[in-house]
Design brief:
The chain is mainly alpha-helical. The protein has 9 helices and no strands. Keywords: Sigma factor, Transcription, Transcription regulation.
């Protein structure tokens, strides 16, 4: 992926449908493969891809990192990862409501994404400040490096490291 994706996002912000189609053509196969690494349900992956590109169309004007290396693709992945987490959380809530339904044992990564490892973890994550949660989301769930997280969030690398450490300490305290 090149910085051409950033130019496409800027054009999408102006309502350019051809740019949107081109961005979709270039990035949707990659996005679907990356989502499938976290979710084996093709229907969920298709839904998340669709919701992601709808969000891109609606929010392209808010894209701030167009001049930063790889940030358009990082921005796209962040939207998709958030949508996938939302789906997992929704599924977890529905599973809690249907007590009589047999539950399959999800993979550890799915549990972490869905926040179903325990109510305590979900509460601890919800109790974190948004900037701490964003760093954990990018580094732990999305698998980004400190540098990539720094670019994505628009903060210095040292700030990313500090926030990650602080978030881990607060989670440890909340769970002990």
């Amino acid at each position: 992926m090149t910085d051409d994706e950033a130019a496409l996002v800027r054009r999408i912000a102006k309502g350019d449908r051809a740019a949107f189609e081109e961005l979709y053509r270039r990035t949707s196969p990659w996005l679907a493969v990356r989502l499938r690494r976290r979710c084996s349900d093709d229907q969920v992956v298709a839904e998340v891809v669709q919701e992601t590109y709808l969000a891109v169309w609606r929010a392209a004007g808010g894209f701030a990192g167009a001049a930063v290396d790889g940030s358009a693709v990082g921005w796209l992945w962040t939207i998709a990862a958030h949508r996938l987490v939302d789906v997992f959380r929704k599924q977890a809530r529905h599973a809690e409501i249907r007590h009589d339904a047999p539950l399959e044992a999800p993979a550890a990564e799915d549990e972490a994404l869905a926040g179903t490892v325990g109510a305590e973890l979900g509460a601890a994550l919800d109790g974190l400040a948004p900037e701490l949660r964003d760093v954990l989301q990018a580094m732990v769930l999305d698998g980004l490096t400190v540098r990539e997280t720094s670019v994505l969030l628009g903060v210095p690398e040292g700030t990313v490291k500090t926030r990650a450490r602080r978030a881990r300490i607060l989670l440890r305290e909340a769970l002990s």
